[in-house]
Design a protein that fits this description.
By secondary structure, the protein is mostly helical. It is 78% helix and 0% strand. The chain starts with a helix and ends with a helix.
């Protein structure tokens, strides 16, 4: 813990930042695509999301560095230089690693949100809400979204687990002092106890996020809440 305790904290903070950025954007983008189904906006967003989802993290990260840190605009640090400081003390250095992790997840989660919402919007109770004169925004966010969040939460859990794996590449790319660098160094020198601990941390993140996703699915889905009571 003396050796990698701070690294685990740094990586968990990076995962939290990436989740806080990607989840709201994915929900709003998926809702916008479902509301404008088969429009030019929907087609462009779907095509762009598919292209971003298929791009590796190091390609996205290098492109962001070239765009915002070196050649085009020198607005953000190209790499992190935290030293003994905590990452939340230098939020400007967290922007590029966070965006690199979030971009691929936004593309995938928004597509799942769109598909789930389109299925829900074709339900009878949605048609009844519209016939009663409910505004389209109310129909989307009060009636459709809660019933569409079940599959979305499962995908969010999978993407948080993806963050835990992708963070290794992102940390190496941006010189971020997290578990990625510690795991790479431990594998290089065959430090088995450190490797075991870090793998257990990644596995714990996966298990906890899936458990939270199952609980959240029950809480936000009216049908499941009713069956439990």
């Amino acid at each position: 813990l003396d050796y990698i305790g701070s690294r685990v904290t740094n990586s968990l903070f990076l995962l939290l930042c990436a989740s806080a950025v990607s989840i709201p954007i994915s929900l709003f983008l998926g809702a916008a695509q479902a509301a404008r189904r088969d429009s030019s906006f929907d087609s462009a967003a779907s095509f762009g999301g598919l292209a971003l989802a298929s791009a590796p993290e190091f390609v996205i990260g290098i492109a962001l560095v070239l765009q915002f840190a070196t050649i085009v605009w020198n607005l953000l640090p190209a790499v992190t230089q935290l030293g003994t400081d905590r990452p939340w003390e230098h939020m400007d250095q967290m922007v590029l690693p966070t965006v690199t992790l979030a971009i691929g997840a936004i593309a995938y989660m928004s597509r799942v949100t769109r598909a789930s919402l389109i299925e829900v919007l074709e339900s009878d109770y949605i048609e009844m809400a519209r016939l009663k004169g409910a505004p389209e925004r109310t129909v989307m966010w009060r009636h459709a979204m809660p019933n569409a969040l079940g599959p979305v939460f499962q995908v969010i859990a999978i993407n948080v687990a993806y963050f835990a794996a992708g963070v290794i590449i992102v940390e190496y790319l941006f010189n971020y002092p997290g578990i990625g660098g510690a795991l790479q160094a431990a594998v290089r020198v065959r430090d088995i106890p450190v490797i075991q601990f870090l793998v257990m941390v990644l596995a714990a993140v996966y298990v906890v996020t899936n458990l939270l996703a199952d609980i959240a699915t029950i809480l936000v889905t009216p049908r499941l809440r009713t069956s439990l009571t």
